[in-house]
Structure formats: structure tokens, C-alpha cells
Write a structure and sequence with these properties.
By secondary structure, the chain is mainly alpha-helical. It has five helices and two strands, in the order αβαβααα. α2 links the parallel β1 and β2.
Length: about 90
């Protein structure tokens, strides 16, 4: 597991495996490895959508914009899917 991932991702996966909990990962390699070893993966976008549904944030779009502005890579397709799930796009 550690050969493909950085130390933090590897530790997060070990913790998720040992505790049988999902792991928050956004990097493609980490997500692929998590799925390979049977760990459920949750991404930052899904956390933001859940936060909106729980009333913890009012809009997902501006948060995604801020993430992108600060170097977070997000495909337009995923961005649109997240906006749709959050009810910000018809």
C-alpha cells in the first residue's frame, strides 16, 4: 500500500481499514488504492454537499470556487455533478 501513496494517505487507509470506517481522500491514486483494499471513499465534494443538506453551509458553489482558486483540482464534470446534488444546478 505505501509504495503508491504518501505517508499521510497510507496512514489514513490503515486507520480506515482497522476501524472499518470510510476515508476522506481526493487524490486518484489514494482513491484507487482504498477501493482496492475495500475501504469506502468519501471526497471533499461529497462532504460539502452533505454539509449543505444538513444546513451547515448555504452554498457549495462558492466553496468549490475557493478550493479551485487555492490549487484544488476539480473537473468541470465533477463540479457540475456536485452542484446538481446540492440543488444549485437544474
Amino acid at each position: 500500500m505505501g509504495r503508491l501513496l504518501d505517508a499521510g494517505e497510507a496512514q489514513a487507509l490503515v486507520l480506515a481499514l482497522n476501524s472499518r470506517l470510510p476515508v476522506l481522500l481526493d487524490e486518484r491514486r489514494g482513491r484507487l488504492e482504498a477501493r482496492r483494499v475495500g475501504v469506502e471513499v468519501i471526497g471533499t465534494g461529497a462532504v460539502l454537499v452533505a454539509a449543505k443538506h444538513k444546513g451547515l453551509v448555504s452554498e457549495v458553489g462558492p466553496l468549490l470556487d475557493s478550493l479551485t482558486h487555492n490549487g484544488y483540482r476539480l473537473s468541470e464534470r465533477l463540479r457540475q455533478a456536485l452542484l446538481e446534488k446540492s440543488g444549485e444546478r437544474n
